[in-house]
Design goal:
With 271 residues, this protein is an all-alpha fold. The protein has twelve helices and no strands. The protein has helices spanning 11-27, 31-44, 46-62, 66-86, 97-106, 117-136, 140-166, 170-175, 182-200, 208-218, 223-238, 245-267.
Length: 271
Amino acid sequence: IFRCTEDFLTPRLAAEALTLAEIAAALASRRGLCALCIGCGFVLHPIMAFAGVVLLACLYVGLAHPKAALAACAAAVAASLPGLALIARGPFARMDPQWLEAVRSTSPFLLLSTWTMKDWSIACLPMAVLGCGLIAGRDERLCKLCAASLLACGCGLLLTALYCDALHCVLALQVQPWRWLWIPTIVAAGFAPRILRDCWRGGVAMKAVPCLIAGAAMLRGQIGCIVLSLAAVAAAASLRRIRDPRIARLVLFGAAAGASRGTVCRSSPNQ
């Protein structure tokens, strides 16, 4: 259930803990403690700690002032493009073909174009949980946190696709914006029980959402996880409108059958 990706002590672990403490302090309106956690996190591991700053920016700026935030981001991207074309050296330069090929062969996770179906499947499940929380959540604060987490996911993936895959910017490859997904993954895991409980209490048809999420979890790492994750989000967005109890029961039985099929396929990979 709970595991740690490192089998020895590294700065990443402490930075992740400080980043989570930073988010908790911000949500509790303890700004001084939040700033202290941010500073300590950046000292230990700036790449992982920056994800917390992105999430807070999405929560308190992006959601509060969406038009201004979008305009500022678009202006920043537009201003950076001429510099990438002109700068030939340093972190803002573009990676040369030989070094880029070495990155592709030794660290394919740095580029979205080299992600496998398993990688996308693992990333899809937490985003589906957050999407269901945004749509069906009953707590406004939780809905905002889910929305900010999804926005952070989108920003990380878009920046990676633009600056790493398309422009091959050295600084972007070092910053690794796709790593911002680690905080939304933690948020999805931590609040999944509450999100799925809200869906379960939304009516007979809405009970299909937890079933689909369970089936997706059983197929984590496979293409079926992506299919069931998308189906769960679509179900959360549409099933509330079903009033006929017979149709609602059919939808629930179908979702349960899909989740059961996922369990069978997980236990018997050859099927």
